[in-house]
Specification:
- The protein has one domain: Ribonuclease Z/Hydroxyacylglutathione hydrolase-like (Metallo-beta-lactamase, Chain A, 4-Layer Sandwich), CATH 3.60.15.
- The chain has helices at residues 74-77, 87-96, 115-124; strands at 8-11, 14-20, 29-34, 40-48, 62-66, 101-105, 130-132.
- It has three helices and seven strands; from the N terminus they run E-E-E-E-E-H-H-E-H-E.
- By secondary structure, it is α/β, with parallel strands linked by helices.
Length: 142
């Protein structure tokens, strides 16, 4: 099965719906999983949350998306030049969309030991839900 914008697939009691994530540099497809219990998980791949894809994640229980660096580090890492956004940018939009759990991935690698705390602190200034910044191999429980 080829995946494209508006493709969908049901597996047992889970519906998987694919959508264009509105990437500015390459066509990318994200997905929304609606579980039998009604809970919704949305993944934007390595794309950041933007105004363009905001309606596609509205009210989801868990959002997985990129946040390249903290806002205060934007001049060092230049996320906007790479078509990415900061933790602050994503947190503001996740709050606006009433997302319950925010999982931030696809970030710079210079602050691995401190990244979880630094990113969580910044996100929490703009976002009232749960924030997760996983490390490779980590399992998340909500």
């Amino acid at each position: 099965m080829e995946i494209s914008d508006e493709s969908s697939l049901a597996i047992n009691d889970t519906l998987i719906e694919c959508f264009d994530v509105c990437s500015k540099n390459v066509v990318q497809t994200g997905f929304r999983m609606t579980f039998g219990c009604g809970e919704k998980l949305v993944c934007l791949g390595d794309e950041s949350l933007t105004e363009d894809n905001l309606r596609k994640i509205q009210g989801c229980d868990t959002l997985i998306c990129g946040a390249f660096c903290r806002y205060e580090d934007k001049d060092t890492y230049k996320p906007y030049e790479k078509h990415h956004h900061t933790v602050r940018d994503v947190a503001i939009l996740a709050e606006k969309a009433k997302v319950k759990n925010l999982v931030l991935v696809h970030s710079e690698d210079d602050n691995l030991e401190k990244r979880q705390g630094l990113y969580k602190t910044e996100a929490s200034k703009y976002y009232s839900g749960n924030v997760f910044i996983p490390v490779d191999g980590e399992r998340l429980a909500f």
